[in-house]
Amino acid sequence: MKLNILSLPGDGIGPEVITEAEKVLACVAGHFGHELRIERGLIGAAALKNGRGAFPVSTRAAVKHADAVLLGAVGLPEYDQHPPAERPEKGLLELRAAMGVFANLRPVKAYPSLLKASPLKEERIAGTDLLILRELTGGLYFGEPRGIAQGRATNTMSYTEAEIERVARLAFELARGRRRKVTSVDKANVLENSQLWRQVVNRVGQDYPDIRLEHLLVDNAAMQLVLEPTAFDVLLTENLFGDILSDEAAVLAGSIGLLASASLGARRADGAQPGLYEPIHGSAPGIAGQSLANPLGAIGSVALMLEWSFGLRDESALMENAIAWLLEKGPLTPDLGGRATTGQVGDALCARLEAFAGAPE
């Protein structure tokens, strides 16, 4: 198969973790005989520093021709005081809009070998295996009107029934392949927006009588994530709530550096599923350039890419197995209590992949 990838390393530790993700992807593609083509582009602060805007025309054009996009991280503190239109994050929002991705999938798993890495009690998080499904194109991040004028700041939380229905339907479909439970998160006790969200999710749920549906207010959901994380299967949220809850869920895995994500849109007419794949950890400028970054979130995002955009489940499963082995045996980066560099983790994972791939059936 031809794997046509657009790689956007971005800012901070983005280039470091993406280098390792590309390395591991090349190892997998080579073993399975896939033809790999990786084109690199600019986004975020890396693009702003070149005077091209946070989402350059050249990057926008490359997105249209790629089968999947691999993103490192976007954002640097030196731009924090700039207006929204001139900040690196503007590039990420424009990228999502250009790709039409509306659903962000963030798997969260507590690996047995890392239970001690979490500040929570081991018996509380053991067995955690949940999927956060975050709506990606609506809500406060995109609603109009917005802005700051005459001493007043305005953001608009807006959703249509169609926007809610398409992500809700995906949640139920995903639950059918898991433990058949959907937990929908809202703030329906005070927000009309959430009241519509709950109404639509309930209506869609009637088409899936085999799936158990529950609703949680977002504040309660945040508490239950740390009190009883094993009770969750698929966690369905709107944009802002999902952004916050998925970062909170990183404590269950032991490090935010472990968490991968896939952002998906509607399938094309030819059946292809373009997607945007990225670790959720952000640019972490404080450790950029020091080879301290954990690349496993980016590498895990490649595993999601192989499964969702290319249907290569064997390749994806091989990567997941190699990551689980590495987390047990090492080497590990400092965020997980180890001393390995970013590059050493990538090299070790490639070696383990080759060992797994070459093992007899």
Structure, described:
- With 361 residues, the chain is of the alpha/beta class.
- It has two domains: 1-104 and 262-361, Isopropylmalate Dehydrogenase; 119-253, Isopropylmalate Dehydrogenase (3-Layer(aba) Sandwich), CATH 3.40.718.10.
- Helix content is 41%, strand content 20%.
- The protein contains 13 helices and twelve strands.
- The strands form two sheets. Strands 2-1-3-12-11-4-5-10-8-9 form a ten-stranded mixed β-sheet, with helices on both faces.
- Strand 8 (181-186), helix 7 and strand 9 form a beta-alpha-beta unit.
- Helix 1 (14-32) crosses helix 11 and helix 11 (296-308) runs antiparallel to helix 12.
- The longest helix is centred in the first third of the chain and has 19 residues, at 14-32.
- It is globular.
Describe, in short, the structure shown.
This protein has 361 residues and is α/β, with parallel strands linked by helices.
Instruction: Tell me the helix content.
Output: 40-55%
Sheet with most strands: 10 strands, mixed
Write down the CATH topology of the largest domain. Answer: Isopropylmalate Dehydrogenase
Count of strand segments: 12
Output mean pLDDT.
94
Low-confidence stretches: none
Task: Quote the distance from N terminus to C terminus.
Answer: 23 Å
Approximate shape:
globular
CATH class value of the largest domain: Alpha Beta
Based on helices, strands and strand pairing, what is the structural class? Answer: alpha/beta
Placed side by side, the strands forming the largest sheet appear as 2-1-3-12-11-4-5-10-8-9
Give the SSE order as H and E letters: EHEHHEHEHEEEHEHEHEHHEEHHH
Strand content is 15-25%
**How many distinct folded domains?**
2
CATH A-level architecture of the largest domain: 3-Layer(aba) Sandwich
Report the radius of gyration as a whole number of Å.
20 Å
Query: How many separate helices?
Result: 13
CATH superfamily of the largest domain: Isopropylmalate Dehydrogenase
